[in-house]
Amino acid sequence: MQNQTTPPIQQLLTRLWQHINPKRRTQFGLLLILMILTSFAEVISISAVLPFLGVLTTPEWIFQKKAAQPLIQALELTNPQQLLLPLTIIFCIAVVIAGIMRMVLLWINARLSFAIGADLGISIYRRTLYQPYAVHCASNSSEVITGIANKANTVINSAIMPILTLVSSSIMLAVILFVLLTVNPIITLATFGGFGLIYGIIISLTRKRLVTSSNHIAHESIQVIKSLQEGLGGIRDVLIDGTQNIYCQTYRNADLLLRRSQSNNYFISYGPRYGIEALGMLLIVLLAYALAQQNDGFAQTLPILGALALGAQRLLPVMQQSYAAWSQLRGGQASLQDTLTLLEQPLPAYATQTITQLLPFQHQITLQNLTFRYSADLPWVLQNINLTIPKGSRIGFMGITGSGKSTLIDIIMGLLEPTAGTLAIDDQIITIENHRSWQQHIAHVPQDIFLSDSTVAENIAFGIPQPKIDWQRVKLAAQQAQIAASIESWPDKYQTIVGERGIRLSGGQRQRIGIARALYKQADVIVFDEATSALDTDTEQAVMKAIEEISDNITMIIIAHRLTTLKNCTQIVELENGTIKRIDTIKVQAIIGDTVTI
Question: Which architecture, in CATH terms, is 12-343?
């Protein structure tokens, strides 16, 4: 997923903006207004310190100011000392309002950022689920899971929140600087111009390091998930082979580099703060000393010094926030690129359409000159397949591993598009536009049944919300799959939790639940891909007999190696090297274990 070169951050942010829905954009606009109001509240709190400190040191000077006359007249004050209480109250109110508005701004920033993150995560998951089966075959699940679970969060912390912080800090910076310039422009320009120069030097020195760490974070986060999936997914083989140390070392190598890169970015983002704060304190002390040497004395300069000190106390964190936000943007640049790649997966037209009716299927499935390969640089898997499957027939596919059986079945089920040739249902060719209407006819029972960590009933009615489960259909499907007796002997019956991937069930029980799942769908085409391999012969025959008795209109397509599974098929198709070797009616001449002579 990760690219060799990452586009400029401005281009990535433009692409990200296109994936933010109109509602969130409106909220951004309202948030911008709040940022401006908060900035003015900060200005008021800084401006209020001048008269407050002035009335503490030289109340007569403040009492004679023209700007103070409206307040003096409104309160009918006659003594300069009487200004202390109202100015104290005004200063306190200004500080409290500014603090409350900063907290509200922070709260809304966080809520909006994580709401957008949720939108993006949902969009990535939706777009991924709607990708064609061939795309999933070519994708690494670790990259996809990391993109959905981790990198969407990275976008929140390394893109959305830093952008909001940059915008808020820029507005605050401009407004506070404007106020301080009116107090003492020379000292303000010299002081904060110096701070800006220091941050500029730091940015130029750390830019490449941030990009390098960003690439490491994007890559190693995938490797961490991959090592976890492989180690835990193959835990039986890991325990048998004693390869725990190998998987631990793989995880350790990826996780250490990931954490080291994250720590580098963190230090680069927040380390300069302490040096800048120390430098700011030194400048304030030097400024106080210089102002104290002036002829008008320290009392006259204290209000100016207080305003500059309060301004610095507000401005330095704002400058640090801006720098940290920029560092986070640069540090998450590669992960943002990976996330955008997932967000920009095309959605098929049917994703926004409701399937109103099934594709008519009254007569036959036809494969004509069908040829397939997964990509132009890979060999042909199927070549010139011509086959007709009448509705209601039982057709079996045989062939050695790699002969193309499963790929052919995937094409019949509409999961893969033929590279050449056609798949037609009653002479209607299946395309990307109508394949979902065809798939409504199909139920699939694979060899490796996926079971979710939920109840038996939820696994039989797979994908159906629990309140909408038809319990009569669940029980009927379980009976037809020859597992109802086992389920009803368990204490929780159909509410029994099967465990992750059905780990609490035997292989035969998992397969029968998979068969029950297909029967619950009540489809008229059922595909069995080695679906009864884990069943004993008697159970397999009972299952197949129960299915055959459901309806003569059900078309059964079976991949199997055991003759007993195929003995009731109306025809057998034997594949070899991606072509049809022969089509025959089955006649059992000898059965020795799994060795079959036809």
Answer: Up-down Bundle (1.20)
How far is residue 60's CA from residue 73's CA, in Å, rounded to a whole number?
15
What is the percent of the chain where pLDDT is above 90? 0
Distance CA 345, CA 457 (A): 34
| Each residue's pLDDT tens digit, 520-552 | 888 888 888 876 666 677 777 776 776 766 667
- Considering only the top CATH level, what class is 364-597? alpha beta
Torsion angle (degrees, nearest 10) of CA 125, 131, 136, 137? 180
Please report the pLDDT score of residue 2 as a whole number. 46
The pLDDT of residue 102: 80
pLDDT score recorded for residue 5: 65
List of residues 6+ apart from 359 with CB closer than 8 A = 425, 428, 434, 437, 438, 440, 441
The count of other CB atoms within 10 Å of the CB of residue 237 is: 9
* Of 396, 392, 389, nearest in space to 564 by CA: 396
| 164-182 core/surface letters (b: 16 or more CB in 10 A; e: else) | bbbbbbebbbebbbebbee
DSSP 175-224: HHHHHHHHH-HHHHHHHHHHHHHHHHHHHHHHHHHHHHHHHHHHHHHHHH
Q: What pLDDT, on the 0 to 100 scale, is given for residue 281?
A: 67
Q: How many CB atoms lie within 10 A of CB 362?
A: 8
Residue type at position 10: Q
The DSSP secondary-structure symbol of 577 reads T
Instruction: Please give the average per-residue pLDDT across 418-437, as a whole number.
Output: 86
* Residue range(s) of every CATH 1.20.1560.10 domain in the chain: 12-343
Task: Mention every residue, 6+ apart, whose C-beta is less than 8 A from residue 338.
Answer: 1, 2, 143, 147, 151, 218
Q: Mean pLDDT, to the nearest integer, of 171-196?
A: 73
Give the mean pLDDT of 111-139.
Answer: 79
Compute φ and ψ for 181, nearest 5 degrees.
-65, -30
Residue 26: phi, psi to the nearest 5? -65, -40
Q: Which residue has the higher pLDDT, 199 or 343?
A: 343
Q: How far apart are CA 479 and CA 491, in angstroms?
A: 18
Q: What is the mean pLDDT of residues 301-328?
A: 67
Residue ranges of the chain that CATH labels 3.40.50.300:
364-597
The token pair at 322 is: 């801006």
Q: Are 175 and 42 in contact (CB under 8 A)?
A: yes
> Token pair of 512, please?
């029968």
Helix axes 333-343, 297-331, angle to 10 degrees: 50
